[in-house]
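Hey L., structure's done. Input below.
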Amino acid sequence: MQNCIYKKPYHWVHVKNLIRLRISRYYIPLITTITFIKQLAKYEYNNFVVLDVGGGDGAFIHVLLKYLNTDIKKKMYLINLDVDIRALKFAQRLLQKHDKKDFGHLDFICADAQNIPLRSKSINVITALEVIEHVKEDFRCLKQMISILKTPGFILITTPRFLGELRSFSHIREYRYKDLLRLLDKVSQGSSIRYHVFTYQIPLSYAKYYGENYILRMTHILTKLMIVVFQRMTGTNILSRLLKKVILYILKILHIINELSLSTLLVSEPIGIRFLVLLNT
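Output:
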């Protein structure tokens, strides 16, 4: 979620209810993060630390707290880091609705993503949603994340795909698929870091060119397709309402397939530091 000047907590629009969340761009990052947290939490008995870089108004932490089970939440230490103090004040106020007895700890840090003031090997999971396109030194930012990550550890990044021109005045750059591969190759050089890049590419025939896990790749594309169809359905008649229910049911099934595929990905390969990058259209 972007590091920019906050006037209102606009990310919360996407997470006010389950239906709105399932058709938002945060749905796949959410279920992906939850899956990895469930897997990695097995290796930590206390103080499982999750850092949301550029977490802004706290919307992503809100949905994590809403959809993770109580056993995991109780041992979680959550950190929301953002460069904008106003965004963190929104987060502090809005996240008060969660009962503090239901999770371990919640902290807020005002800092730049290129200079994260946390000690090395202290974090289990890092998320950075729509952040690296705002950062001047993306290589330095990713290296910072790696330095503070435990092994095994997981980093989830989402960023807009470059479509010919920058989508926002606040974006320093946007990425093509090959740009991300080049950056991650450089970041992981001389280490055992594993990374996977997935991009929502339509038509479906392009799917074979992107991502390392075909099933996971297809579930991401189909989820994106269902979201697009749902958003374009504006009718209020019985048929439209029925089709929307069918789409939400399909999204539930895709959620299960996505979780199983990610779990298989973790179990089938050596456990270490893992990058997962979702390139949004």
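The longest helix spans residues 238-268. The two ends are 15 Å apart (CA to CA).

-- N.
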